[in-house]
UniProtKB/TrEMBL annotation:
HAMAP family noted in UniProt: Homoser_kinase
Gene: thrB
Entry EC no(s): 2.7.1.39
Gene Ontology BP terms: threonine biosynthetic process
Record-annotated GHMP kinase N-terminal domain positions: 63-146
Main subcellular location of this protein, as a coarse class: cytoplasm
Top EC category: transferase
Name of the protein described by the UniProt record: Homoserine kinase
Pfam family, one: GHMP_kinases_N
Similarity remark: Belongs to the GHMP kinase family. Homoserine kinase subfamily.
Entry's Gene Ontology cellular component terms: cytoplasm
Pathway note: Amino-acid biosynthesis; L-threonine biosynthesis; L-threonine from L-aspartate: step 4/5
Length: 298
């Protein structure tokens, strides 16, 4: 018995939702093949596309599956093959795709003892291994699709939010690696009341805009004065990229997860294509190596 799946990339934070908001990309992601074995063992049998640990207790997919099997009290063994298309340290949920994909497939092969929402906590164990912190803002949208909101971590409560159909994400990935662990270290631990008010006003408005499909309000809400000022310093020409995206009609622009990828959220394919071209042209002129993606949110 085996299952072949697509494990999607995700964009976490979305400016005002640090550690609580994320969305799932439709056409960017890894491929995984998960197969039952008779060895009562989790084996990472093959990884292509990236150099990552094959020992299952050092691999995010292995650790996430172990957490699931422990709670299910199952001794079933699995072989996991991963074709990594998402680069590690890119900021579009590379570790989350592996963790979420693995628990999703294993759960299916076990006859679905857990709901998708219940799988989030197992996938978070992969994030703990990867970054030292078990955040859910990538694994939740990878499992649930669309947008998701972590209402609270203790107890864990995650909500799926609607996804306005015309939204498009342009992802620009400068080919430098930023480890989530490191980009969490540059953030301040204390926030002023003034900044907190600004942030929760925007986050609430953003959630409202998803329900009402108010694209303009969504754009006005993609703001972040708490994290972006510190992390953007690590991204080449961040302020200029942002100016280019907004001048060319993007709804909003920000850092994808912990970077270095940045995102431009756009309304409609045509605008997204235009913004993509402008961002591409700017980095090409500066001789900066990059990758680009354009995707629906699904
Ligand atoms: N919310 C996490 C962070 C996501 O920004 O550190 C990491 O991809």
């Amino acid at each position: 018995e085996e299952l072949r799946i697509f494990a999607p990339a995700t964009v976490a934070n979305l400016s005002c939702g640090f550690d609580v908001l994320g969305c799932c990309l439709e056409n960017v992601g890894d491929e995984m093949l998960i197969r039952k074995n008779d060895l009562r063992e989790i084996r990472i049998t093959k990884i292509t596309g990236q150099e990552l640990p094959l020992e299952s207790d050092r691999n995010v997919a292995g650790v996430a599956v172990q957490a699931l099997l422990k709670e299910a009290r199952s001794t079933q063994g699995f072989d996991i093959e991963i074709d990594k298309k998402i680069k590690a340290g890119s900021g579009i949920g590379s570790s989350a795709a592996s963790s979420a994909g693995a628990v999703y497939a294993v759960n299916k092969l076990l006859g679905e003892p857990f709901s998708k929402n219940e799988l989030i906590k197992f996938a978070m164990e992969g994030e703990r291994l990867a970054s030292g912190n078990a955040h859910a803002d990538n694994v939740a949208p990878a499992l649930l699709g669309g947008f998701s909101l972590v209402k609270s971590y203790e107890p864990l409560e995650v909500l799926k939010l609607p996804s306005p159909p015309e939204l498009r994400m342009v992802i620009l990935h400068p080919l430098i690696e930023i480890k989530t662990r490191d980009s969490r270290a540059v953030i301040r631990q204390n926030v002023s009341l003034q900044k907190a008010i600004f942030q929760w006003g925007n986050l609430a408005a953003l959630v409202s805009s998803l329900y009402t499909e108010d694209y303009a309000l969504l754009g006005r809400s993609l703001k972040d004065e708490i994290i972006e000022p510190f992390r953007s310093i690590l991204i080449p020409h961040f302020d200029k990229l942002k100016a280019i995206a907004l001048e060319n009609g993007a709804l909003g622009f920000g850092i994808s997860g912990s970077g270095p990828s940045v995102f431009a959220m756009c309304k409609g394919e045509e605008n997204a294509e235009n913004v993509r071209g402008k961002l591409e042209g700017f980095y090409a002129d500066k001789n900066i190596a990059f990758e680009l993606h354009l995707s629906k949110i699904n």
